[in-house]
Write a structure and sequence with these properties.
It comes from Fredinandcohnia quinoae. InterPro entries: Spore_0_M. This is Sporulation protein. The chain contains four helices and 15 strands. By secondary structure, it is an alpha+beta fold. The chain folds into two domains: 3-135, Immunoglobulin-like (Sandwich), CATH 2.60.40.640; 138-253, no CATH class. It has a five-stranded mixed sheet with strand order 2-10-9-5-6, with no helix packed on it. Strand 5 (50-63) and strand 6 form a beta hairpin. The protein is elongated and about 70 Å long.
Length: 256
């Protein structure tokens, strides 16, 4: 290799390319993403120090009264040791990535993607970005369906920076915001917010915030001080699914 080609390779000209091919595009948290990473050599032989997969999303963060999107890494793994890719050579590397249980569901504004990157020393590292869908688990689906059946409509789903008391390994939580549009809670509540912490395939911890509608001067005073909000924390297992609608109704009624 001439010196001229070595210099061009080190700044990313003629460098290798990467393309990730997934066997499917929709998953549940806790399941595995499988596929193949295809690496295509460029105009010069190059050493690839590593190939890594990052599972990413964004969340809303506020600073100085301004909101902006912050990127968060949910998971990152290395899938191969260092190797050399020749000129125009093709390599296919199979991989498997288990989605953590706290991977957010792709509803509302929430997007999740896998970014594949090559680590090439002293080069502009190429990468590939693939969006995937994350469906709610059967337990979370049953909770969401029960809330719908109680007369609530989904107003917003978003990932926001996690309050300190709810902080886990990730810097954000995913909030599901519902408003009562019919049924027993219409006129009694302003909204209900749900946050899910999936612990295993059959256990979900739920944080529910019930925002009562202000009534009279006392109610307006409470609303101004945010005293009209109640936060409830409880656990739902797969055994609770048949009775989850009634359990949610009783819990919400107790804070109306």
């Amino acid at each position: 290799m001439s010196l001229f080609n070595k210099i061009f390779s080190s700044i990313g000209i003629g460098s290798a390319k990467v393309d990730t091919k997934l066997y499917q595009e929709k998953f549940e948290a806790g399941h595995e993403v499988t596929g193949i990473v295809e690496v295509i050599g460029g105009n010069t032989e190059q050493k690839i120090d590593e190939i890594y997969l990052s599972l990413l999303t964004t969340y809303v963060k506020e600073s100085n009264d301004r909101k902006f999107n912050q990127q968060a890494t949910i998971e990152k793994i290395r899938i191969v040791e260092s190797f050399t890719i020749g000129v125009d050579e093709r390599k296919e590397i199979p991989f498997s990535l288990k989605l953590p249980y706290d991977t957010p569901i792709t509803m509302g504004k929430t997007k999740v993607w896998i970014q594949t990157g090559l680590d090439i020393k002293n080069a502009l590292d190429p990468s590939d970005k693939d969006y995937i869908g994350i469906a709610p688990s059967p337990i979370i689906s049953s909770i969401l369906n029960a809330v719908y059946d109680l007369g609530f409509s989904l107003r917003k789903v978003d990932c926001e920076v996690a309050p300190y008391k709810f902080r886990s390994r990730l810097p954000f939580i995913q909030e599901f915001e519902f408003v009562p549009t019919n049924g027993a809670f219409r006129g009694k509540l302003d909204e209900v917010e749900l946050v899910f912490f999936q612990k295993s395939s059959d256990t979900v911890e739920v944080i529910m915030e019930v925002d009562r509608r202000a009534r009279g001067l006392a109610g307006l005073f409470s609303e101004a001080l945010e005293m009209d909000e109640s936060i409830i924390r409880f656990t739902v297992t797969s055994r609770d699914i048949p009775n989850i609608k009634q359990q949610l109704s009783n819990t919400i009624h107790s804070y109306c």
